[in-house]
Amino acid sequence: MKLKEHTQELFLFEEMKKGKEYSFDFFFNYYYPGLCVYAQNLISLSEDDAKNVVQDVFLKFWNDRMKISIETSVRAYLFVSVKNKCLDFLKKNKMHFKLNEEIAGLEIADNSLDTFVLSELEELFSHSLNKLPERCRKVFELSRFKGLKNREIAVELNISEKTVENQMTKALRFLKTELKEYLPLLILFESFHFFK
Fold first, then answer.
1. Share of the chain above pLDDT 70, in %
2. What CATH number corresponds to the domain at position 163?
3. Which of 26, 31, 64, 111 has the fewest CB atoms within 10 Å of its CB?
4. What is the rounded CA–CA span in Å between residue 83 and residue 85?
5. pLDDT tens digits for 92-120?
C-alpha cells in the first residue's frame, strides 16, 4: 500500500472512531467484495456464509471502533479479522472444511498476508492470460505491461490501430469474465490497476 493511501486510510479510521459513518461506509464498500471472495477461498464457504462472516466482521469493526488499534493498515486488520471469523465459524458449526493452512498461518507483519494473497492472484491471472489467443495476449501485454500506446503497438505488431483496439477490448472482456469471481479482490492490489 502506498504511503498516501495508508495515510488516507488512517485518517478515515480516525474519523470512523469519531462516529463518522461515511468513513465506515467507505471501508465497507471498498473492502467488502474482496473479503467475501477471500472468505470463500479460505475455507470453501458458500457465498451466503461468506457474506455473513464478513458482515459480522464489519459489525464488530464499527461497534468496537473505539477499542481497535490499527498497527499496519485497515486492509490488513480486516483480512486477519475475516480469517479469525472463518475459524470461529468452523468451530461453531463443527464443520470440517479443508483449511488453507498457508493463509491461516500467516502473520500480518511485513505485509505477509498481502504478499501471499497477491502471489495467488498473480498465478490465477497469469493462467487466464495464457488462455488468450497469441496476438490478443501480445497486444494486452504491450499495452498494460509495457505501457505502449495503440499506435506503437500497431507498428510493433504490424497491424492496424483498429485491430489493436479490438484485441484490447476482447482481452479485457475475456479476463474480466474469466476472473469475475476474483475481480473484487484483484482491484485491491496495485498490480492489477488496469481492472480499476
1. 76
2. 1.10.10.10
3. 64
4. 5
5. 766 555 545 444 444 443 344 555 566 66
Same domain assignment for residues 140 and 90:
no
- Which of 196, 181, 151, 178 has its CA nearest to residue 36? 181
Q: How far is CA 82 from CA 32, 130, 187, in A?
A: 10, 32, 18
Same domain? 98 vs 45: yes
C-alpha cell at 95: 464443520
Contact predicate 86/42, CB 8 Å: yes
Asked whether residue 101 is domain-assigned, the answer is yes
Q: How far is it, in rounded angstroms, from Cα 110 to Cα 134? A: 38
* Model confidence pLDDT, tens digit, residues 126-155: 888 999 999 999 999 999 888 899 999 999
CATH number (domain holding residue 79): 1.10.1740.10
Asked whether residue 70 carries a pLDDT value surpassing 70, the answer given is yes
Containing structural domain, residue 106: 3-110
Closest CA to 85 of 108, 51, 119, 113: 51
What is the residue whose three cell numbers read 479510521? 13
- Whether the Cβ atoms of residue 157 and residue 135 lie closer than 8 Å to each other: yes
In a domain, residue 157? The reply is: yes
Q: Judge whether residue 21 has pLDDT over 60.
A: yes
